[in-house]
Amino acid sequence: MTISQRIAIATAEAGLPSDQCMACERQGLPILPLRRALVPDTRPQGLSTVAGSLHVSAKLGVRTLRMGYLYVLLDQQVWHAYEVSEQGHLRRFNPYEPSEGLPASLPEKCVNENHDIPSSFL
Questions:
Q1: How far is CA 54 from the centre of its chain?
Q2: Rounded mean pLDDT, 73-82
Q3: What is the largest CA-CA distance in the chain?
Q4: Are 83 and 93 in contact (CB under 8 A)?
Q5: How many separate domains does the chain show?
Q6: Residue 103 falls inside a structural domain
Q7: Is residue 33 one of the residues assigned to a domain?
Q8: How does DSSP classify residue 16?
Q9: First to last CA, the chain
Q10: Are strands 58-64 and 68-74 parallel, antiparallel or unpaired?
Q11: How many CB atoms lie within 10 A of CB 49?
């Protein structure tokens, strides 16, 4: 790999310009990352159960991500890294310079201006 290619990859991985919000001002195709999980069963309860059988009122479905980190490999070369807040909002960061501590929640300004929806997408 040439130095020019390495510089191009490092630039692509560096994140967004410092004057943009890393949570709600990202650009590109919006993708909502989800995980498989048990969710409440909302089907009608009209089905009869056999005496003595266990009744489970949950089914397999999808939910937003839990708090933590999400790493995305683009074109088998470029890494994009995201912090996932407790509320499921994503904030992009440089994968080679992670912040210390737990991912922070969205600022009140972003929540009040309805930026919480775009921040849930990649």
A1: 35
A2: 86
A3: 71
A4: yes
A5: 1
A6: yes
A7: yes
A8: S
A9: 28
A10: unpaired
A11: 9
